[in-house]
Amino acid sequence: MNIALKWMVLISCVVFIPPLLIGLIRKTKARLQGRIGASICQPIFDLAKLFAKDELLSEISNGMLRSASVVSASVAVLIALSSPWLPGMPVLFHSDIFIFVYLFALLRFFTVLSALDTASAFGAFAASREVTIAVLVEPAVMLCFIALAVVAGTTDLSAIFAFTADNLSIYPGLWAMAGCGLYLASLVELSRMPADDPTTHLELTMVHEAMIIENSGPNLALVEYASALKMLILMGLSGQCFLHATTAVLKLHHTIYSLGGLLALFVMVGFIAVIESTSVKLRWTKLPEFIAYAVTFGLLCAMYSLGTLR
Amino acid sequence: MKLTNLELVFVGVALTAIMMLGTTNIRTNLSLYRWHTMLIAVSSGWIGYLRAEPVFHWLGIALMIAGAKAWFAPWFLSQIMRKVEVQNDSAVFIPTALAMHIGIALLALSYPLAQTLPSVLNQPGGSIGATVALSLISTGMLLMVTRHIAVSQVMGFLVIENGIYLISLTQTRGMPLNIEMGVLLDLLVAVMVTGLLLFRIKKNFEHIDVAKLNELRD
Fold first, then answer.
1. Would an 8 Å CB–CB cutoff place B100 in contact with chain A?
2. No. of helices (H) and no. of strands (E), chain B
3. Quick check: ipTM above 0.90?
4. Distance from CA of A168 to the nearest CA of B (A)
5. pTM over 0.90
6. Per-block average pLDDT, block size 10, for chain A (310 residues)?
7. 3-state helix, strand, coil in chain B (%, to 5)
8. Which of B55, B66, B56, B59 has the alpha carbon at shortest distance from B45?
């Protein structure tokens, strides 16, 4: 496949797959609750409708709300184009693990700014919760990535997740533990079920939803698209970790892994829907214990990777 | 340190034991214990198979562990839990998140400790097996020490027992079948006796919180 065609495939994936993932979650949840549910493509139509709508801006806002949503959407697109969430695809630039994690932090920073901008009490407390969660989750993500980087001998994310490296495919245990850690951390990072209920609008439980409560019209569409894109990237990477764990027993041609990565992405997202249907939201004070599981997996990965240096 | 598949099963054993430290819900703890012991049963059957022991020996041991330790003991404990009406460990001495991280630190510590053990013979999975076994003993002790509810003490005891079993499995040439059966029987009796004891404690004191059991009463 030549490089131009690959770029076209990648860009169309980045544009169309994130809303489809949201649609998949909603559809799976509806089926598990015994409803038919809306079509998987419904979020695409929702986004198109929001882009056509007018925008309502609070009088107090000084414009940060508008610019922050544009910034967060463009940062999300930048991460999606530079990180190897789909194996075998070209990247804009070779992303370091630290750049990757701190671009996510930049995205979060602007979301928090926009939540504080409107001076609504909801936005402020949701922002404070979001930052508290971020402080707890970041070590887990970092430990998983650093463990993989130590074994790979490089901090280049594309090199770590390339299926061609033989020195990485002999550690299925490391990959599986890193996958579990990343998955649990991303559940919290994406404000999904055990940490936050994305479907209710009850002010006591919301984290992400309360932050974007003042956004409307195209503004809201951009923020929702950015959060769906975040899910695409994080779920793509954790799905690939599990895919790497299988390469120890099963070696396939590396073009098949592009399709496999896409499949793993959808399986991971479907699993979110299953978790959301079967579990309840944790109390806020219990959340650090849940995040501790992600950190535990990260610590185990780190230990394992130090063991490989001997 | 490239792990073989058998050693990966051992790592799973250590992982599930450490995760038991992370939750105070008794039902989750019991199901984690079930997985933990099933992995022990799988690894003991596997090791027996690798050593080319007679079929009835390794298959028998694996099945007996799965039946007695992985199925009966948690089932019995969950029945007791239903009778004494306790679902949650109300309080812990060390926060669960911290306990889990201490568990990992102890797992890391047991690796150099296991290297100092006199290696009797070159067993498959010997060094990692000893590491995991030592970490199971310390994890079980941590579980016993940090919890208030008496059932968690029983679970901690069972985890310690699993650790001791794993040492005997990986560091010796294997035990005769009748000794393994005797140990299993002892374990079952111990679980049943502690079950009855829990009943009596609940009846006399109206709780099973060991933190409040340091005063004599007639």
1. yes
2. 8, 0
3. no
4. 10
5. no
6. 86 93 94 93 94 89 88 94 88 90 93 88 88 92 93 89 73 90 94 82 74 88 94 94 83 80 93 91 85 92 84
7. 75, 5, 20
8. B59
